[in-house]
């Protein structure tokens, strides 16, 4: 608490009211949890809950599961920002974050992340089940330790291997409803895993200067734009193929198949346009990134409404 009090007095600095300073600090802690990404992670977990139970899950189970997951994801994001505070300060896109801008201290961010991770794990174990708690903690640890601390600064394959972190939420949702995992839960994991490289590399292409400045070995920095765009197309095709698996092995309706085909063809077209555009133009890279943000909620909507026996 004293850390927060210090931050409020620092912010006050004789100007503004205590109320607005407090709101500023609270806003900074919310920003530490990367809330927009958290919303998308929650969408994937909630969709998995619906498919796993063939129905809308109870409000109580939904609130407990998604609250616990949000806590773990927020903890992971805070610990990522704590560890990456040096490079976040160097990159233009991240320089206004709470740590580089000095609104939250490194110690406070670390304690916040650890406390949130511990609380959410215990909360899920006590109110949902042990497997759900374990998977949520594993997702958080994978993001912080495997991706952020180990791979991000070492290899251009950081996103490919580290992409596993963001793919945990459907497993969390599935385990919360059934107490175990099934192949369809792992298929959802695979979909996010294969989606992550084109999602991230599209952004890395038009934010390349940032990564060069921060000396982070992202694929466009190390292997160049053309190689990255080819890899994006390869992962997009693998993603497309993985989304067609339920058409053969899981009871899905024509709605699922149609939506998956539209998404697959659309995302592949974006990847090809990206590959065709000259390196100085980033029009299609930007479209690919924003297309990736549409892909996930629409695909999860498709598997929910297109699963036979749903509702
Ligand atoms: C290791 C895997 C991933 C990496 C490295 C990654 C990286 C990034 C980066 C660098 C941004 C830009 C953030 C910004 O503008 O400050 C971003 C945005 C975003 N990502 Fe990812 N991402 C990953 C996985 C995911 C997953 C699994 C999801 C959800 C399913 C996701 C959802 C989003 C969303 C919704 C945004 C837009 C956020 C905004 O506008 O602030 N990402 N991602
Ligand atoms: C089950 C569970 C709790 C999963 C949570 C895992 C999680 C928070 C995944 C998000 C992945 C992500 C946003 C990476 C950002 O990369 P970056 O850190 O390189 O991006 P940055 O440069 O914007 O910080």
UniProtKB/TrEMBL annotation:
Localisation per UniProt entry: Cell membrane
Ribonucleoprotein found in the keyword field: no
Keywords from the UniProt entry: Cell membrane, Heme biosynthesis, Membrane, Transferase, Transmembrane, Transmembrane helix
Membrane topology: Multi-pass membrane protein
EC id: 2.5.1.141
Catalytic activity of the protein: heme b + (2E,6E)-farnesyl diphosphate + H2O = Fe(II)-heme o + diphosphate
Superkingdom of origin organism: Bacteria
Pathway assigned to this chain's UniProt record: Porphyrin-containing compound metabolism; heme O biosynthesis; heme O from protoheme: step 1/1
Entry keyword annotation includes Transmembrane helix: yes
Gene Ontology molecular-function annotations: transferase activity
Main location: membrane
PROSITE patterns for the chain: UBIA
Listed transmembrane segments: 62-83, 104-125, 131-151, 158-177, 183-206, 232-252, 258-276, 288-307
Description of how the protein assembles with itself and partners: Interacts with CtaA.
Note: Carbon 2 of the heme B porphyrin ring is defined according to the Fischer nomenclature.
Family per record: Belongs to the UbiA prenyltransferase family. Protoheme IX farnesyltransferase subfamily.
Function: Converts heme B (protoheme IX) to heme O by substitution of the vinyl group on carbon 2 of heme B porphyrin ring with a hydroxyethyl farnesyl side group.
NCBIfam families named in the record: cyoE_ctaB, PRK04375.1-2
UniProt name for this protein: Protoheme IX farnesyltransferase
Organism: Alicyclobacillus cycloheptanicus
Annotated gene: ctaB
